[in-house]
Amino acid sequence: MTANERALAVVILAAGQGKRMKSGLVKVLHELCGRPMLAYPIEIAEALAPERLVVVVGRDSERVCETFAGRATFVEQTERRGTGHAMMTTRAALDGFRGDVLILYGDTPLLRAETIERMRTEKAARGVDLLILSALEPLPGRIVRDARGRVVRIVEMTDATPDELRIQEGNTGTYLVDAEFLWKALDQVDDKNAQGEIYLTDIVAIAVRDGRAIDAVPTGDADEALGINSRAELARATAVLRRRTAQRVMDEGVTLIDPDATYLDWGVQIGRDTVIEPGCVIQGPTRIGERCTLRAHTVVESSEIGDDVVLGPCAHLRPGNRIGKGVRIGNFVELKNSQIGAGVKADHLSYIGDADVGAGASFGCGSIVVNYDGIDKHRTRVEEKAFIGCNANLIAPVTVAQNAFVAAGSTITESVPKDALAVARAKQRNVEGWRLRRKSKGSGKHHPKE
């Protein structure tokens, strides 16, 4: 039977307290590159199309279940008695299952699906009951082998001898195990260890004792084994995911001037021949077209950008924008929840929010769409080839019709018809000689002696 013919169930252990995070948010909901930590192992599991997918939850279980509703069966571990005990809580959810159980962790988000597929292939080829994913670095659990190189047990760092602490092959905690053997072994584990917990790792020693075939295969990338227990480890894992995303988009034809200074969320899609300068931050499910230029320190959040667009430097696109082909959004321009037609120009110091802007329209320096009245947001419509002069305010809801022109310094509170010029500012009055008269009055003042 091949790896793909054998039935598969996936269990993700995600009930940890996360005390070292020192956070009011449960650990597995902390975000990496725009998604909660737990989303990554769930996505890997879904890619394997298992017969059953079970997630063990603990702290803030309702919030975790709500976040991933419909994607798994959730089991709560009400007592925190170790990984073995967490696995025991899934017995009812896996009742009647025959095949291999893949055990993953909610705080180990860097595993790749291809690594798991390799485990399945290796397990089938080697004919073992238990296959362990190891890493060639000293993780908290060390894999102990005999003189012939066979796995004999896993020892936790807190229980290890000095010689065992020098072992370099670490246990990632990721197991692919025959379901029948798993339950028989879990029935025999106990909590006689330094922590007083039921260790899932004890099933290895039980397999050896019972003459079961077991083995361990190392991952080719030690980063995949990184578990997150602190803010520093969260930052490290996030950096790994950013590098992976940067490599992916560069492989797809995108130029990153400085990949280490470019911050891309996991789901970002960018078209070929686009150039991104240092300091850019692209977040959420953003899609950027081909041949675009994002100049330094531009931020794009959950927006859709067409081809041949130029953004920045220092532009900020908040969520919900759809930007047409050939648009220019320049220095210190902010957009929010707006539809921007092809060829629109807003080159500096403007705010466009909750607006529908037609093709070829132009916004002068300092022009503002005033979309909020203190209670509600309102939309503004600027039609094709309309021109908004410098320091103009468009007080929503209002329409500036096709080819209309808004004079600089105007505050527009009523719609402007097609081809019209709107001037809405106080009439200038020059007071002749005012400066001289003011100076003359000042010359008669008494100045106290120093």
Can you tell me the CATH architecture of the largest domain? Alpha-Beta Complex
Shape: elongated
Distance between the termini: 103 Å
CATH superfamily of the largest domain: Spore Coat Polysaccharide Biosynthesis Protein SpsA, Chain A
What fold name goes in the CATH topology slot of the largest domain? Spore Coat Polysaccharide Biosynthesis Protein SpsA, Chain A
**CA gyration radius, whole angstroms:** 31 Å
What does this structure look like?
The protein is an alpha/beta fold and 450 residues long. It has two domains: 8-225, Spore Coat Polysaccharide Biosynthesis Protein SpsA, Chain A (Alpha-Beta Complex); 243-422, Hexapeptide repeat proteins (UDP N-Acetylglucosamine Acyltransferase, domain 1, 3 Solenoid), CATH 2.160.10. Helix 2 (61-67) links the parallel strand 4 and strand 5 (73-76). Helix 6 (179-186) packs across helix 7.
List the main descriptive attributes of the protein structure presented here.
Spore Coat Polysaccharide Biosynthesis Protein SpsA, Chain A; 2 domains; alpha/beta; ten-stranded parallel sheet; eight-stranded parallel sheet; 450 residues
Structural topology:
Blueprint (H helix, E strand, L loop, with lengths): L7 E7 L16 E2 L2 E2 L2 H9 L4 E6 L3 H7 L5 E4 L6 H6 L11 E6 L7 H14 L3 E6 L5 E5 L5 E6 L5 H4 L4 E9 H8 L15 H8 L4 E5 L12 H21 L3 E2 L6 E2 L4 E2 L4 E2 L4 E3 L3 E2 L4 E2 L4 E3 L2 E2 L4 E2 L4 E2 L4 E2 L4 E4 L2 E3 L2 E2 L4 E4 L2 E3 L1 E3 L4 E2 L4 E3 L9 E3 L4 E2 L4 E3 L2 E3 L4 E2 L4 E2 L8 E2 L11 H10 L7
Parallel strand pairs: 1-4, 1-6, 4-5, 7-11, 12-15, 13-16, 14-17, 15-18, 16-19, 17-20, 18-21, 19-22, 20-23, 21-24, 22-25, 23-26, 24-27, 25-28, 26-29, 27-30, 29-32, 30-33, 31-34, 32-35, 33-36, 34-37, 36-38
Antiparallel strand pairs: 2-3, 6-10, 7-10, 8-9
Helix pairs in contact: 6-7
